[in-house]
Design a protein that fits this description.
159 residues
Length: 159
């Protein structure tokens, strides 16, 4: 074989290998409905001595309930109570009221300072109380959720 013929034959071999690779990848991607069905050996059982007709397959809600209960059991009672309080509607409404009150207090403080007067003590105390409430809330959330809290956009915005 001469030089150009050997080059052409190498190119055709290379192309056929690429085609074979593509066909193999297509076959791997295609999944038949039968291959999705569990086999006898893949079905979970509570007791390995049971026959296949007696196998027990847990329902997805069962698994969710078990993971929820496990999470509830790993937290002490006071942690669960605080989490429940912080997820309640009353907590959301009271937090919103505190925020609105703080906005009003800041508004008053800005107006008083703009007029050249000094801020009254009661206004400074109320603003400090709001700051303490915000700080306690953020500290509590951080202690309950740990590092996961920094993946929450609203928490990061509050910081």
């Amino acid at each position: 074989l001469s030089g150009p013929e050997s080059t052409a034959s190498r190119k055709s071999k290379c192309k056929s290998k690429k085609r074979q690779k593509k066909q193999k990848m297509k076959q791997e991607r295609q999944v038949s409905p039968k291959s999705l069905e569990p086999t006898e050996s893949s079905r979970p059982t509570l007791n390995p001595g049971l026959r296949s007709s007696e196998a027990v397959t847990p329902h997805s809600n069962f698994v969710k309930l078990q993971s929820f209960l496990a999470k509830e059991q790993e937290n002490p009672g006071w942690v669960s109570r605080i989490e429940r309080i912080m997820r309640s509607t009353k907590y959301d409404v009271s937090t919103g009221a505190i925020i609105m009150a703080d906005v009003g207090l800041n508004w008053m403080d800005i107006d008083i300072r703009a007029s050249g007067e000094s801020t009254p003590t009661w206004l400074e105390v109320c603003a400090t109380v709001c700051l303490v409430i915000y700080s306690v809330e953020m500290l509590t959330i951080t202690l309950l959720r740990g590092r996961r809290v920094f993946h929450d956009g609203w928490f990061v915005l509050d910081i």
